[in-house]
């Protein structure tokens, strides 16, 4: 019984410690610039997630250097409301410290980035630049 209680308390403490760190991770993003590259879904359009994840996004991330804090890749699954069409096939997001550094780093590589599009999609992306508030 005592061993089970110790195991239970250890698990509770571990869970609480992990949970307590979550707000710090979220808070660290405040003030970062977020570049969202969104690929609208449409019938007949294609998107190769494997290529995007293993080739395209790492290539672009390498161009950004130390300005890049992290990047994420979202695969569209469904719309927020049942019966509605999928809004985006995918969204790639870069979190950077400086918009001007991002623009300076990307500019010399725009042709290479655009030339890589046919390797994974026939969708024209929509790009949103925003600031992380919270």
Automatic annotation (TrEMBL):
GO MF annotations, alphabetized: oxidoreductase activity
Protein's UniProt keywords contain Signal: yes
Signal peptide residue numbers: 1-20
This protein's record includes keyword Signal: yes
Keywords: Signal
Matches recorded under SUPFAM superfamilies: Dimeric alpha+beta barrel
Pfam families: EthD
InterPro entries, per the entry: Dimeric_a/b-barrel, EthD_dom
UniProt xrefs under NCBIfam families: EthD family reductase
The protein's name: EthD family reductase
């Amino acid at each position: 019984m005592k061993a089970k209680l110790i195991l239970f308390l250890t698990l509770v403490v571990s869970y609480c410690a992990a949970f307590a760190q979550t707000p710090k991770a979220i808070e660290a993003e405040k003030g970062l610039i977020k570049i969202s590259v969104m690929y609208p879904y449409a019938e007949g359009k294609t998107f190769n997630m494997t290529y995007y994840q293993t080739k395209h996004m790492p290539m672009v991330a390498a161009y950004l250097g130390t300005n890049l804090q992290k990047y994420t890749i979202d695969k569209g699954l469904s719309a927020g409301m049942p019966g509605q069409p999928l809004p985006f096939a995918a969204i790639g997001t870069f979190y950077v410290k400086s918009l001007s550094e991002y623009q300076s780093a990307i500019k010399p590589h725009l042709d290479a980035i655009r030339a890589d599009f046919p390797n994974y999609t026939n969708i024209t992306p929509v790009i949103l630049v925003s600031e992380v508030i919270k």
